[in-house]
């Protein structure tokens, strides 16, 4: 039985991730291409955040169901096996397979987003002016979620938490942080 869709959540989050993709695209190239100062750390963080944003863009279409239940391991395992079978048989995965195996595929994209966020934070740790933003609760919550795992948390909650951290980090790269008068 298909899960009911929460269109309000889906449209709001799709809009948020689309805007974030645009914000990443508009990040000043001069800052990202510089080999001096913080340039390399910022460029690496930006590349990881592009990966996180892509993963959240893909996951939003798979996490939109209105279910309040958490996924259980047998469901995750069954969907992973279906995904793997398709990959072996056809050597390709299309979005319709992501949808039909969303309990596993959504978690794959979410896990990837969290990994990319952690990598971006690791690079930004070396940028003195980034410390205030890295200490924000949104970033800390994503790092903590990555440490404790994903299986017992609802997909939508995982998406929201990862996106909140991503939004803080993208604003940092675009010098759109609250309370900061200094530029990276």
Summarize it.
By secondary structure, this protein is mostly helical. The protein has helices at residues 7-25, 29-33, 39-60, 73-90, 95-100, 102-124, 131-134, 137-148, 155-173.
Structure description:
- The protein is mainly α and 184 residues long.
- The protein has 9 helices and no strands.
- It has helices at residues 7-25, 29-33, 39-60, 73-90, 95-100, 102-124, 131-134, 137-148, 155-173.
- It is elongated and about 50 Å long.
- It starts with 6 loop residues before the first helix and ends in an 11-residue tail after the last helix.
Key features of this structure:
mainly alpha; 184 residues
Q: Specify the helix fraction band.
A: 55-70%
Shape: elongated
Strand content: under 5%
Task: Report the biggest beta sheet as strand number plus sense, adding barrel if it closes.
Answer: none
Ends distance: 50 Å
Structural class: mainly alpha
Number of strands: 0
SSE pattern: HHHHHHHHH
- The Rg value, from CA coordinates, equals 17 Å
What is the typical, i.e. mean, pLDDT?
A: 88
Number of domains: 1
Which consecutive residue ranges, at least 5 long each, have pLDDT under 50?
A: none
Counted by DSSP, the helix tally is 9
List the helices and strands and how they pair.
Layout: H1 7-25, H2 29-33, H3 39-60, H4 73-90, H5 95-100, H6 102-124, H7 131-134, H8 137-148, H9 155-173
Helix pairs in contact: 1-3, 1-9, 3-6, 3-9, 4-6, 6-8, 6-9, 8-9
């Amino acid at each position: 039985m298909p899960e009911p869709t929460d269109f309000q959540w889906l449209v709001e989050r799709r809009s948020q991730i689309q805007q974030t993709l645009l914000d990443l695209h508009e990040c000043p190239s001069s800052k990202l291409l510089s080999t001096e100062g913080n340039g390399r750390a910022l460029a690496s963080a930006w590349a990881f955040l592009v990966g996180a944003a892509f993963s959240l863009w893909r996951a939003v279409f798979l996490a939109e169901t209105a279910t309040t239940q958490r996924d259980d391991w047998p469901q995750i395992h069954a969907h992973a096996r279906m995904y793997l079978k398709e990959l072996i048989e056809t050597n390709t995965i299309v979005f319709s397979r992501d949808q039909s195996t969303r309990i596993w595929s959504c978690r794959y994209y979410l896990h990837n987003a969290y990994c990319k966020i952690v990598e971006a934070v690791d690079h930004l740790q070396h940028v003195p002016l980034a410390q205030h933003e890295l200490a924000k609760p949104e970033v800390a919550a994503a790092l903590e979620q990555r440490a404790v795992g994903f299986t017992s948390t609802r997909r939508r909650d995982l998406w929201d938490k990862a996106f909140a951290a991503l939004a803080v980090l993208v604003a940092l790269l675009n010098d759109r942080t609250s309370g900061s008068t200094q530029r990276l």
